[in-house]
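Problem: given the chain below (463 residues), write out its structure.
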Amino acid sequence: MQATVKQVDGLDDKTSKKIDFYTRQFVDAIAPSNFVLTNPEVLRATIETGGENLVKGLDNLLKDLERGKGRLMIRMTDLEKFKVGVNIAVTPGKVIYQNDLIQLIQYEPATETVKRRPLLIIPPWINKFYILDLRPENSFIRWAVEQGHTVFVVSWVNPDEKLAEQTFEDYMREGLLAALDALEQATGEREANLIGYCLGGTLLAATLAYMKAKGDDRIKSATYFVALVDFKEAGELSVFIDEEQLHYLEERMRAHGYLEGADMATTFNMLRANDLIWSFVVNNYLLGKEPFPFDLLYWNSDSTRMPAAMHSFYLRNMYQENKLVVPGGISLAGVPIDVSTITTPSFLLSTREDHIAPWKSTYAATQLYRGPVKFVLAASGHIAGVVNPPGKSKYGHWENAKNPPTADEWLATAKQYPDSWWPVWEKWIAKYAGGEVPARKPGDGKLKPIESAPGSYVLVKAN
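Solution.
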């Protein structure tokens, strides 16, 4: 079936990709493993238990429908086994600033001295920040604290209809720039090193271009985790973005003022339907089993909403029209921005099997920025390749001293290493640390703690 649709003539590239994607969805759905009579494992379980697996499966199905208020919300993990702030997102810290869009968390130091320049992490607001702070053994945040960074993390609000008019520009001003200002009040340091993850990295690049135009040089290094800047080849997410689908999406958002978290989750799950949909249909509904407790899948199920104005701007200007790489194509706070003017030293981390930010597309940024750029490619995907602590040799990475014009050339001349990229990044960012100072605790500066980490914004559920 998939071979047949690929042979259809007369289709433009975008239509061809869309047909191929939805054909694959159909093929995945009708796979024999998804039906009782054509899945040997399910048949065996049905005979051995006298059909008890199907009764239990029906109960699981009804519970998922009830939890989704009539919409099927497939449980990917045991939702009772995890609690934010209790056994995930437990790195000690305090919320030291908040506004309508963010809470800013400052983490307790783990060393007697720290790097002078604080580290500010800007996660995507499509998801919650604690992907970087799941459990102590795989927490990038805890690890960074242990390397002597004064770590600050933005925890974005889970927006409701009151924030429907919040724009991409607001996320820059009340998010990243407000966090920078608060960081200075908290530590007395004007300069900082920043990390932007996924959409947070896109915002970081846009903000750096804005700051360049304004003569603001506070950011001394920029790290991008799996972040798109050039959206020319944006991967399979682009199949959801054409004028007809955007119009439909904007109509849906207009009804509430935001995009439902469940809509966003379904879109991402469809990109890996066999792993994130059909495997759970078989396990939960046909075999009647309970899903396995898995911290990453708990986080994946903890969805967030998107403000209508921001999300429409993002999809149209970046995914649909790719304006971020056009000098002056986008204006923020009345300032036309140009990402090719960025001279800030940059570390680009991409992952080889990324289905959200394809690594060859993220590589394009190496040819855009004017400052020094180090590009590192990790194995695995958008999440597992990033959340990959050292010492376990689970996923390796590739490095190259040069950034040739194309991603294929880069990989052909890159050297492969068996362990995590985290120590590589630490060695790189140490050059921009600005020396050592005595460790700073939350509350030492002008901003006093509001509440303990992980804060209250991250606890708000989308459903």
